[in-house]
Amino acid sequence: MTQRPTGGGIRRSASKSSSVVTAARKLHQPSVRDAEQLFLAAGSQSVEYGLRANLLERLFVSPAGDAKFPDLIDQVLAAGVEVLVVDDRVISGLSDTRTPQGLVGVARMPEPISNIWSSRPQLVIGLEQAQDPGNVGVVVRTADAAGADAVLLGPGSADPFGPKSVRASAGSVFRVPVFRVEDMLSELSAAQSNGLVVRGTAANGEVTLFSADDLDLGSPTLWLLGNEAHGLSEQIKQECDQLVSIPMFGGAESLNVGIAAAICLYASAAAQRD
C-alpha cells in the first residue's frame, strides 16, 4: 500500500512474493544482471554512491534500516526513487552478508565508455583472470582512491557487479569506469599506441618497483596483474613493456592481488603528482 509521496519518490510496502522482490532476487544471477543492466547494491555506502551517480532505480529497506538511516532514505525519496519497505527475510534474501544493514538498492550499471584510450588516461589497472570477487572489488576501490582513470577486467575475471565485488568496492564501482574486455592483448596494444607504458607484475621481474633509476613511474601507465594463483600468463608478459616485481622484505612469498594493486597504483599516482 502506498504510504506517501515525498519529493517525487513513492514509499510503499512490498511482500516477499511481490513481483518487484522476485525480480530483484533474480539479480543474483550474472546472466540476468547483464541482460537487465541492473545489479544489487547493499549497504548505506553503496546506496549513497549509487544515488550520487543518479543510478539508483529502487531501494528496499527493512524497518531497522528505516530507523537507522532516515536521512539517506529521505534523500532517496527526494530524488524521486521508489522506496519499498520489506521485512528482514527479504533483505536477507537480497543481501550476501549475514548481518545486512537493512538497505539494498537496485542500480543501473554505469554507461560504458566506448574507448577509454582516446581520452588519454594517465593511470589504468588491468586484471587478467582475477577470479575472486572480493579482490576485484578491492581493486576497484583502490583505483578510485588512487585517482586511476579506469579498471580493465580480462576474460575469466569475477563480475564487478556481483554482490561481493560491489560490497568490497564500497561504492567505488559507481565512480570508476570498469571495462570487461574480451581481448586483453588488443587493449594492451591500444594502450601502447596511445602513449601508455604497459607494466606487468611478476615474481622475477626485470626491475623492482623501487628501482628509481629503471622506472619512470610518472609516465602514463597501464598496470597489469594476473590470476591470484598463477600470475600473468606468458602471452601477456611477452607484450608488456616492463615486468616489475614487488620486493618481499620479509618471509612472505607473494602478496594478495588487492594489496599488490594498491602498491603499484599508489607508486604511480604519487610519481605522477610530483
Describe this structure in words.
This protein is an alpha/beta fold and 274 residues long. The protein has two domains: 2-108, Ribosomal protein L30/S12 (60s Ribosomal Protein L30, Chain: A, 2-Layer Sandwich); 116-272, 3-Layer(aba) Sandwich (Alpha/beta knot), CATH 3.40.1280.10. The chain is 36% helix and 22% strand. A seven-stranded parallel β-sheet has the order 9-8-7-12-10-13-11. A six-stranded mixed β-sheet has the order 1-2-5-4-6-3. Helix 7 (133-146) packs parallel to helix 8 and helix 7 runs parallel beside helix 11 (257-272). It is elongated.
Keywords summarizing the entry:
274 residues; alpha/beta; 60s Ribosomal Protein L30, Chain: A; Alpha/beta knot; seven-stranded parallel sheet; six-stranded mixed sheet; 11 helices; disordered N terminus
List the helices and strands and how they pair.
Elements: E1 2-6, E2 9-13, H1 19-25, H2 30-36, E3 38-42, H3 44-52, E4 56-61, H4 63-68, H5 70-78, E5 82-85, H6 88-94, E6 103-108, E7 123-127, H7 133-146, E8 150-153, H8 163-169, E9 178-180, H9 184-193, E10 197-201, E11 207-208, E12 221-225, H10 234-239, E13 242-245, H11 257-272
Parallel strand pairs: 2-5, 4-5, 7-8, 7-12, 8-9, 10-12, 10-13, 11-13
Antiparallel strand pairs: 1-2, 3-6, 4-6
- Number of continuous helical runs: 11
Give me the secondary-structure category. Answer: alpha/beta
Q: What is the 3D form?
A: elongated
In whole angstroms, the N-to-C terminal distance is 58 Å
Total number of β-strand segments? 13
Average of per-residue pLDDT values: 92
CATH architecture of the largest domain: 3-Layer(aba) Sandwich
Indicate the low-confidence ranges by residue numbers. 1-6
CATH class of the largest domain: Alpha Beta
Walk across the major sheet and give the strand order: 9-8-7-12-10-13-11
CATH superfamily of the largest domain: SPOUT methyltransferase, trefoil knot domain
Rg value: 21 Å
What is the count of distinct domains?
A: 2
The main pleated sheet reads as: 7 strands, parallel
CATH topology of the largest domain: Alpha/beta knot
